[in-house]
Amino acid sequence: MSTDSSASGEQPVETTDPGSVDADGAPFLQQPDDGSGHLELAAELRRLRGLVAGSTFEDVHDAVATVRELSDHLEKVGTRVNPFTYETWGVPEHIGANPAIGSRNPISPPLEPVVFPDGTVRVELTLGIEYQGPPGCVHGGIVALLFDEMLGLANAAAGSVGMTADLRVTYKSPTPLLQPLRIEARQIRTEGRKIWTEATLHTGDTLCARTEGLFIEPRGIRDEDRDKPIEG
Ligand SMILES: CCCCCCCC/C=C\CCCCCCCC(=O)SCCNC(=O)CCNC(=O)[C@H](O)C(C)(C)COP(=O)(O)OP(=O)(O)OC[C@H]1O[C@@H](n2cnc3c(N)ncnc32)[C@H](O)[C@@H]1OP(=O)(O)O
Questions:
Q1: Which residues line the pocket of ligand 1, CB cutoff 6 A?
Q2: Dihedral, CA of residue 77, residue 74, residue 5 and residue 31, to nearest 10
Q3: Is ipTM > 0.90 here?
Q4: Where are the alpha helices (DSSP H) in the chain?
Q5: What residues does each domain of the chain span?
Q6: Which end of the chain is more exposed for a tag (fewer CB within 10 A), N or C?
Q7: DSSP states of 185-210 as a string?
Q8: What is the pTM of this model?
Q9: What does pLDDT average to in each consecutive run of 10 residues of the chain (232 residues)?
């Protein structure tokens, strides 16, 4: 499904063939740790994000100076990723920056998906106050973000990629903060470049939300079209 990534020297993130795993599921789209400390940095910033969004303070000007110093340092030592230069979907720099699944992105929970033999992709996660909408509940836009991503992953598990053309979310019951959540997604059918994919979000046995998405495979992304430019 991907274009040739050799020009960038990057390989797409390892995926798992849904037909070759046992009934417990297998890690899907695992993101490599390059050993630089990048993932630990992102994890620490996730902790910071929760503390900043979810605390009140008397005076944190000392913390402002510390964090500013850190930002200045990272700006100096890092090489900036240009989002317009990826050769394909799914290389670590692409997935790593993703706001839902990216292990390098402190905004992401992140998701750690597993895939089952029937192509179902599942994540289990718990969201903190930084994802709050109504008091004690997950923001509906965050639910939509997670659904969009999970539908995309189910498409990837089925060997396809698509741009979201239509995303319908039905919110059945408030999605609680600080409770284990489970999202399951599966591609339902395809017709030419059109892909229909569905997902549910549960806490325990309670259905919190469900979604149906229509995705359109970008022109030129199929194997036989690899030489043509990717659009969309
Ligand atoms: C072995 C596998 C390895 C896998 C490894 C991969 C790694 C995976 C990597 C990463 C996974 C994570 C994934 C992330 C997921 C995130 C997703 C997003 O956030 S996407 C951003 C938000 N969406 C947009 O910005 C779209 C904006 N819209 C567009 O660009 C176009 O409208 C587009 C591409 C959707 C369609 O444009 P056209 O020109 O290509 O196609 P036209 O001709 O318009 O439509 C084709 C058919 O679809 C229908 N169609 C199009 N849009 C429709 C709609 N909204 N509702 C109903 N039908 C629609 C049309 O009526 C047409 O149907 P008829 O062929 O005539 O039957």
A1: 1, 12, 15, 89-90, 148-149, 152-153, 156, 159, 161, 163-166, 192-194, 214, 216, 219, 232
A2: 130
A3: yes
A4: 38-53, 61-77, 92-96, 140-157
A5: 26-225
A6: C
A7: EEEEEEETTEEEEEEEEEETTEEEEE
A8: 0.89
A9: 36 51 78 94 97 98 98 96 80 90 94 94 97 98 98 96 97 98 98 97 98 94 54 40
Type of residue numbered 186: R
Choosing from 108, 153, 193, 216 the residue with most ligand 1 atoms within 8 A of its CB, the one to mutate for a pocket test is: 216
Given the candidates 3.40.250.10, 2.60.40.3450, 3.40.720.10, 3.10.129.10, the CATH classification of the domain at 26-225 is: 3.10.129.10
Place of tokens 């240009």: 82
Task: Report the amino acid identity of residue 177.
Answer: L
Count of beta carbons in the 10 Å neighbourhood of residue 145: 17
Tell me which residue has tokens 């750690």: 112
Distances (CA, A) of 45 to 58, 105, 230: 21, 9, 34
Chain centre to alpha carbon of residue 124: 13
